Every structure is written in C-alpha cells, then in structure tokens.
Amino acid sequence: MNHTPHNDTGGAGQEFLAFTLGAEEYGIDILKVQEIRGHEKVTRIANAPEFIKGVINLRGIIIPVLDMRIKFQLGTPVYDQFTVVIILNVGGRIIGMVVDSVSDVITLTAGQVKPVPDTGAGFSVDHVIGLGTVDERMLILVDIGRMMSSAEMGLMEQLAA
C-alpha cells in the first residue's frame, strides 16, 4: 500500500477546489472540503449577520451556512441549479459555504501561486493566500480559516449550539 502524505508540497503541489462567485474564480484547500451539496433551504436565525444565511441539519449536526457573495460584497446572490454548498471542516468546526458553482480541482505548485499585489486601496486581503495561475486562468486562493475571524467563528458556534 502506498501511504503518500497529502500535505507534501515538495514539488507535487497543493490541490484547490475551484469555485465561482460572480465573475471571479476562487480556490480553497481541498483538504478542508468535506463534501459538496446542492443548494437547499436554510433555517434563518434572527439577528444573525446578513452573510450568515442560516443553518441546515447535516445528518443530525446543525451547521451554519455562509453566503460568500454577501460576505465578499459581490452583489445580490442568485440561487439556481448551479448553486452549491461546500461543506468545510475548519479547525474541527463544520460550516457550509454557498457559492455560485464549483468547477474542478486544480493542483498548483508553489511557482504557480503569486502574491497579491498591494493596491494601496486600504482594504483587507488577509484571507487571500495568493493568486493561482494555470494557463489563462487565475484563481483567488482563499484561506478559509483566516477569513473566519475569531469573532465570526464565536458567533457561528453560538448559532450551532
């Protein structure tokens, strides 16, 4: 049996799940992805921030669902047959992330990941690892753990409780 560690980036590269939000393509570490589900009705939670769509029951576990289009301020989300919920395991917490669509899994080597240029615009890109480039494609690589500030994680813990 071959026991190759998945986190070996010594040239093999890192795998990212590519997904779209509006006109942009994003990538998230495939090791954080637990499953991909079709969009489903969520139960709204009163007084939760707008980007927290609500909660769903995932095989007996109540998990919060975030809408990334709202979180990244990318306009009004449209829910159609391509809309999916990516179920993520972030530091032992299970969360759902609504995205417009998922396309494929891309392996990026360190050389294909470029730093985000400093625009000087003053907005935070702390949650962006870098820009992954494959041929003509460019993926905005998101660190989901960093994106969920501790305050947001605490809030989601309360929602799931």
UniProtKB/TrEMBL annotation:
<keyword id="KW-0963">Cytoplasm</keyword>
<dbReference type="InterPro" id="IPR039315">
    <property type="entry name" value="CheW"/>
</dbReference>
<dbReference type="GO" id="GO:0005829">
    <property type="term" value="C:cytosol"/>
</dbReference>
<feature type="domain" description="CheW-like">
    <location>
        <begin position="13"/>
        <end position="153"/>
    </location>
</feature>
<protein>
    <recommendedName>
        <fullName>Chemotaxis protein CheW</fullName>
    </recommendedName>
</protein>
<dbReference type="InterPro" id="IPR036061">
    <property type="entry name" value="CheW-like_dom_sf"/>
</dbReference>
<dbReference type="GO" id="GO:0007165">
    <property type="term" value="P:signal transduction"/>
</dbReference>
<dbReference type="InterPro" id="IPR002545">
    <property type="entry name" value="CheW-lke_dom"/>
</dbReference>
<dbReference type="GO" id="GO:0006935">
    <property type="term" value="P:chemotaxis"/>
</dbReference>
<dbReference type="Pfam" id="PF01584">
    <property type="entry name" value="CheW"/>
</dbReference>
